């Protein structure tokens, strides 16, 4: 049973008529509907010309049908390639060229955009799927059989391809196998004690590892249920918490819940676990949530390349400011520049090794070799410590990546857009602390005296970048601080503008 879908199916409840999810609009979906609908879509994808190993590029809004599509790709041996719904035309063109999908599935409003940037050579079909479940994908699948063979494959074969923007501005394709996703999902089910009696409040996006592989996969591997919401809303969350036992979210979700006067112990009586990830959780948020609800948030640490690496314990001390202990089967170490182990509590580079770790970057063997050590550890790019009890703490990032609202922003990608603007001599994009999003993106610009202003720069960025990457503030300076080697000292910019941006 190397195919991830086969393992999901093994954990479906005996009574397939049992509830898999209920949406915020009251739609109920059974495990039987999940099984049959994914089979019909699998048949649709194969009849449209896709073959096992082909990529299916997906840019759609969160919906029940988007789950069916994900599972259809898995059971067909196709590679699921999700894209953030906020990506614009200039961003999409690279992903399509690099991934070379056989099929593109997008919203109706995006179909012309995709057709304009994609060479039809190699694309077998353009299909649409809208947030209400309508579109050509479901229309074509409706008349097809709900019998579909689950394609047998090796655990090492690719199940999903996700992209993480590179610090040089070129995104990297992250190849995740069926085994990577299965082993990590099974470990999380055990670590967090998930069972068929659990009900998850799912408010996360599913183009991201957190909502897709942590949230959805763990539910499918435990035969549990979900309340399925299109996005996070603090009022909805408080309404649904009494009916749930588990919630997964980014720190922004918890800060917004704390701002709602309705949050308290009463609405959390049936909850057994709040999990936070994708960005650092502030101690203040950790402590305030505990005081207000009586629940201690469980923080964990992962990344696209590895899935989850560490977690605070289900039973045991959950320490504020730490991301917990290495998961079973995962080795985490902190090393110096020569890959030698650092002493307890000393800061160094975090490296990980385990069945959760991806095999390499899509068509980038040199970059893959660069990011793995001789003994098979992956260099995460994060700086951290391990204390005497084995708890891991993240103290910073070797690279300049910004995490805003749980989403990764690589400064170089934004800087390339700004630097290409007439009148801009150079720019530096950094993240500064933000009480809502964890970090806010800001840009510091040196101009040649042309008439440039904050609104104009932001407008240019909005035209070419997903909204979460667009700087929230723009600052104009005479020059950027540099060290003796001429490198821009972004730490000084973060320090200088940290209070002005809040």
Structure notes:
The chain is α/β, with parallel strands linked by helices and 502 residues long. The protein has 3 domains: 150 residues, ANL, N-terminal domain (Rossmann fold, 3-Layer(aba) Sandwich), CATH 3.40.50; 189 residues, Rossmann fold, CATH 3.40.50.12780; 94 residues, 2-Layer Sandwich (GMP Synthetase, Chain A, domain 3), CATH 3.30.300.30. 30% of the residues lie in helices and 25% in strands. It has 15 helices and 25 strands. Helix 1 crosses helix 8, helix 2 packs across helix 6 and helix 10 crosses helix 11. The longest helix is centred in the first third of the chain and has 17 residues.
List the helices and strands and how they pair.
Elements lengths: L3 H7 L8 E5 L4 E3 H17 L7 E5 L4 H13 L2 E4 L6 H11 L3 E4 L4 H7 L7 E4 L7 H7 L15 E7 L7 E6 H14 L7 E4 L6 H14 L2 E4 L5 H7 L5 E4 L1 H8 L14 E4 L6 H11 L4 E6 L3 E5 L13 E2 L4 E5 L12 E6 L6 E2 L3 H7 L6 E9 L5 E6 L4 E3 L2 E3 L1 H9 L4 E11 L3 E10 L6 H11 L8 E4 L13 H8 L5
Parallel strand pairs: 1-10, 3-4, 3-5, 5-6, 9-10, 9-11, 11-12, 12-13, 24-25
Antiparallel strand pairs: 1-2, 7-8, 8-18, 13-14, 14-15, 16-17, 17-19, 19-20, 21-22, 23-24
Helix pairs in contact: 1-8, 2-3, 2-6, 7-8, 10-11
């Amino acid at each position: 049973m190397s195919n991830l879908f086969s393992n999901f199916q093994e954990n479906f409840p005996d009574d397939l008529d049992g509830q898999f999810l209920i949406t915020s609009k009251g739609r109920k979906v059974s495990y039987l509907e999940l099984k049959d609908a994914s089979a019909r879509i699998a048949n649709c994808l194969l009849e449209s010309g896709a073959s096992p190993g082909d990529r299916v590029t997906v840019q759609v809004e969160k919906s029940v049908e988007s789950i069916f599509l994900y599972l259809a790709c898995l059971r067909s041996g196709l590679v699921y390639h999700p894209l953030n719904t906020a990506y614009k035309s200039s961003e999409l063109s690279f992903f399509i060229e690099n991934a070379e999908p056989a099929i593109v599935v997008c919203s109706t409003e995006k179909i012309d955009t995709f057709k304009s940037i994609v060479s039809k050579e190699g694309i077998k079909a353009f299909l649409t799927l809208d947030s209400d479940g309508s579109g050509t994908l479901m229309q074509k699948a409706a008349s097809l059989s709900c019998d579909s063979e689950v394609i047998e494959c090796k655990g090492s074969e690719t199940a999903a391809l996700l992209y993480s923007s590179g610090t040089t501005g070129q995104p990297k394709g992250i190849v995740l196998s069926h085994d990577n996703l299965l082993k990590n999902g099974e470990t999380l089910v055990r670590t967090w004690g998930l069972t068929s009696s659990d009900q998850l409040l799912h408010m996360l996006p599913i183009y991201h590892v957190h909502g897709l592989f942590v949230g959805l996969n763990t539910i499918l591997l435990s035969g549990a249920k979900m309340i399925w919401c299109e996005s996070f809303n603090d009022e909805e969350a408080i309404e649904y918490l009494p009916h749930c036992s588990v919630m997964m979210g980014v720190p922004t979700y918890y800060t917004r819940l704390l701002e709602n006067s309705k949050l308290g112990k009463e609405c959390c009586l049936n909850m057994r676990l709040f999990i936070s990830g994708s960005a650092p959780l502030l101690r203040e948020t950790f402590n305030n949530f505990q005081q207000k609800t009586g629940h201690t948030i469980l923080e964990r640490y992962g990344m696209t390349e590895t899935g989850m690496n560490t977690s605070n314990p289900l039973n045991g001390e959950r320490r504020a400011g730490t991301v917990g202990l290495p998961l079973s089967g995962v080795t985490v170490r902190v090393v110096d520049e020569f890959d030698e182990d650092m002493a307890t509590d000393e800061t160094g580079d975090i490296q990980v090794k385990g069945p959760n770790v991806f095999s390499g970057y899509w068509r980038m063997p040199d970059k893959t070799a660069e990011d793995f050590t001789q003994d098979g550890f992956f260099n995460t790019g994060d700086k951290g410590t391990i204390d005497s009890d084995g708890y891991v703490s993240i103290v910073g990032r070797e690279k300049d990546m910004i995490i805003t609202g749980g989403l990764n922003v690589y400064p170089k990608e934004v800087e390339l857009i700004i630097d290409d603007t007439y009148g801009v001599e150079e720019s530096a994009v950094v993240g500064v602390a933000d009480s809502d999003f964890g970090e806010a993106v800001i840009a510091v610009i040196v101009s040649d005296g042309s008439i440039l202003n904050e609104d104009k720069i932001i407008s240019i960025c909005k035209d070419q970048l997903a909204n979460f990457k667009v700087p929230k503030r723009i600052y104009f300076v005479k020059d950027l601080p540099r060290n003796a080697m001429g490198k821009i000292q972004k730490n000084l910019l973060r320090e200088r503008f940290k209070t002005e941006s809040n």
